[in-house]
Structure formats: C-alpha cells, structure tokens
Amino acid sequence: MKSKAGPAAKAASLDPSHLFRGLAGRRGLVLAVSGGADSTALMVLMAKWQERPAALVVCVDHGLRPAAAAEAELVVRNGERLGLPVKVVKASEPHVSGNLQDWARRVRYRCLADAAREAGCDAIVTAHHRDDQAETFLLRLARGSGVYGLAAMSETSTVHGVEVVRPLLDVSRESLGVVVAESGLPVVSDPSNEDQRFDRVRLRSLMPDLAAHGLTAERLAETAGRLARAAAALDDYTRSFVRKHFAVDRFGVVRGRPESFADVPEEIGLRALALILKAVGGAEYTPRLDSVEALRSAAVGAGDGAAVKRTLHGVVIDMRGGELVARREWGRAGLCESSVSTGQSVVWDMRFRVEVPSLPGRLSLAPLGRAERHLKAAGAGHATLQTLPGLYQDGTLAALPEGVGAADDGRALSALTVECLVGQEFGFPRRR
Fold first, then answer.
1. Domain total for the chain?
2. Mean pLDDT (whole number) for 112-126
3. Which of 237-241, 414-418, 428-432 bottoms out in mean pLDDT, i.e. has the lowest?
4. N or C terminus of the chain: which is more exposed, having fewer CB within 10 Å?
5. Band (8; pLDDT cuts 50, 70, 90)
6. How far is the CA of 193 from the CAs of 88, 136, 137, 198, 206, in angstroms?
7. Spatial distance between the Cα atoms of 220 and 137, rounded to a whole number of angstroms
8. Is 31 helix (H, G, I), strand (E, B) or coil?
9. Which CATH number belongs to the domain containing residue 74 in this structure?
10. Quick one: DSSP state of residue 9?
C-alpha cells in the first residue's frame, strides 16, 4: 500500500485543533471568506474544529463586478453545507480613483470589523498562507522596503479596534487547495487573480522560476520571519526612544525635540517617525520609507533652527523653535462617519475609543469639524479639535469629548467619554 506524499499528506495532517489553538476561548470569530479556494479551505477546516467558539462567515461584496452577488450566494450555500452561518455585506463606499486593490482591502477590513462588533465577535480570521507571505516579501522588496517592510506578516494585528488573526501562515496554498478538493465544495475563480495589471499577479507568475533557483515560497517566508525578529528587537529600542524624547496629549498630538533624531542610529529615528505618523494619522500601515527618510532629514535640519512644515500620511508635522508637533490632518477622507448604537464601545479613526451614551435616534461618530462650530479646549488649537470625534444625532452634533466646548446654538451638548489610543503604540499611559 502506497503511503501519502506531497501536498495530500500535508493537507491530511492539518489538524484544526492545532491550527486554531490560539483562537480557543474567544467570544466569537468572524471568518473572512471571498469564496476562493484559500478562504473556502479556512471554512472547511473551521467546520471540523470541534472546540471552535461561535463563528460567523462574512463575505464582502465590493460591487466591482456583476458576478460578485452570485459569488456571495455561493459562499452562503457552502456555509450552509458546512453548518456555518454566513452574512453578506455590501461595500457602501464606492471606488472613485487610486489603487483599486488597496481600496478593496481597506473597505473589506472596515466591513469585517463592523460585522464583528455587531455580532459580538472579538477576532477576524483570515486565510493568509505561506505563499501570500512570500509574495508580500517580493512585492515589498521590489518597492525598496527596509527591514520592517520586508518582515513577515504577523500572526495577529488590529484593524479598526478588532484583532485580526492569521492562523494559516505556515500552510502552503497547495495544501489548502487539496483541502478544498477533498471537500467537494465549489469555489469562486476571481479574474483579478489572473490580471497582469496587478503587481502581485505578475510576481506570482515568477514563483516557479524563482523556486527552481532555491527561492521557494517556504524559503522566502522563512527569511521574512527572520527579518520580523530583527524588526521586533528594533521596535523595543524605538519605543524607548519615543517615550524618552516625546509626549502624547489627550487630543492625540505628539510633541518632542526634532534634534533628538540626530542622537540615535538612523534606522531607529526612521522607525520612530514612521510609527508616530501611523499613530497620529490613524493609519493601518506606516508610510513609504523614502518619504520617511526625507522627513527625518528635515527634522535633523530643524534641530539646527530651520522651520519646517510638512503634511504626510494624514499628519501635519510642524517643526519650529526646537519643537516638533505632529497632529492629525483635517479635511482628508480618512476622517469618516461611522454609524453606532447606544452602549457601544467604538474605536474611531484608529485614534480614539469612544463610549456611546444612551441617546435616541440615528447615531453616528464623525469629526467635530463637520459641525462647523466654534470649538475650544485648554491646550489644543481649533485645527486639532476639528479632528476629534463627535457624536451626531440624526445628523446634528449631540455630544463632544469631555473638556471640549462649542459655541452654543441653544442646544445642550452631552459629554462624550473618549480615550486617546495614539500613545499605546509606544507604551504611554492611557489618556482620557
């Protein structure tokens, strides 16, 4: 009798209780499923996990292709066969211009996070695997990324206040394909995966040739993992540097001495600036390395007395008089409006956690600047206050953060409990 070998053997050895051991004890899981082979394999493996918490499959219809609705229905039918509930969410934000795949990713995660909060789930589970890891490494290498960009995708991250977990990063695409084939479930074939306009698709087509020269997906993923260890060590140094030379106020504004960047290794200064921009700008990712390098050079120059003002990554950076001030930029699309419900604890713009009070009507969180009111608070200018969260009731400002005032138009405004999250990246104490 022949023994199993190759991908079939690896697929057979995929033990759900081992793969998903880090998810045990969760309140609930949202499974991100597009209907493709990878995410369908995630469904199959999750359905076999006897100890799984409550799980909800969420399929996001981006509205980009006529076939998307039918593909979402396929996910619903597959979920029914596996005994998993499915929710289809339609993207409400249309794609206007810019990077299509980046837009789709941002919209997808926003929809997944909203669905998780509504269902009371505390984790989003994706089907990212070893080949995704290798392709991401190559993409970032082609773009000239440094050690952080080349570091592996982490097993966990946080998006819109909800933890994202990637339990299949050590599993190959081929093994997941075998799982799906053995299940007999039909899968979606997304034509964008063959579209040579996209960088990832072009790099994917090179993988067999690279593997012939020893650059296998496994080897590339291992290299990314080693760089991730190096990045983690550098981050410890970086956070200590930021805590020593900078401060974060309750409005999410960072202040410090620009000349301090000349006193540490360049890599530490670059990482510190990148993390400051990410945190202050409410961004999911740090900006491109070349733009951060230019900003560091300007900061070192500002330490010699030059005045510098830049806008980068949704952040206004003002350096003058020996002080660097970084505040959220007002007027960008990133300052969104989010529908909320009474009693919710919501992360808004990745910068603030807001406790929604008990008020009737249609409630939403949006920037205070949208109300076009005269705002005032000790220690903050009007431009900063515009970027703070306000609670709107049927479209009218109803509550604003404690300690912030607004010119009264005859309507009493409630106080909003708001916690600033900007300093958490660096280990600063929580600020309310």
1. 3
2. 94
3. 428-432
4. N
5. low
6. 21, 15, 18, 8, 14
7. 7
8. strand
9. 3.40.50.620
10. H
Is 229 part of any domain? Answer: no
Q: Are 214 and 229 in contact (CB under 8 A)?
A: no
Cα–Cα distance measured from residue 287 to residue 278, given in angstroms and rounded to the nearest whole number: 7
Handedness of CA 282, 287, 293, 295 (dihedral sign): negative
Which helix (H) or strand (E) segment holds residue 47: the answer is helix 37-48
Give which of 132, 126, 116 is closest to 42, Cα–Cα: 126
Domain that residue 273 falls in? 249-328
Q: Assess if residue 363 is contained within a domain.
A: yes
Please say whether the beta carbons of 354 and 391 come within 8 A.
Answer: yes
Closest C-alpha to 287, from 299, 298, 276, 300: 276
**Tokens coding 144:** 């000239």
Q: Which residues pair with 108 in a beta bridge?
A: none
Of the candidates 429, 327, 324, 341, the one whose C-alpha atom is nearest the C-alpha of residue 388 is 327
Query: Tens digit of pLDDT for each residue in 36-73?
Result: 999 999 999 999 999 999 999 999 998 777 888 999 99
Are 352 and 422 contained in the same domain? yes
**Cα 86 to Cα 73: distance, rounded to the nearest angstrom:** 10
- Looking at the fold, whether 213 and 261 belong to one and the same domain comes out as no
Q: 386: pLDDT confidence band, cut at 50, 70 and 90?
A: very high
Conformational region of residue 152, where left means phi above 0, alpha means psi within -120 to 50, and beta covers everything else: beta
In 10 A of CB 239, how many CB atoms?
Answer: 17
For the chain, the average pLDDT equals 90
Task: Output the CA angle 25-27-30, nearest 5 degrees.
Answer: 110
The two three-digit tokens of residue 68, written as one number? 């998307």
Reported as a single tens digit per residue, the pLDDT across 194-240 is 777 778 888 888 899 999 999 999 999 999 999 999 999 999 999 99
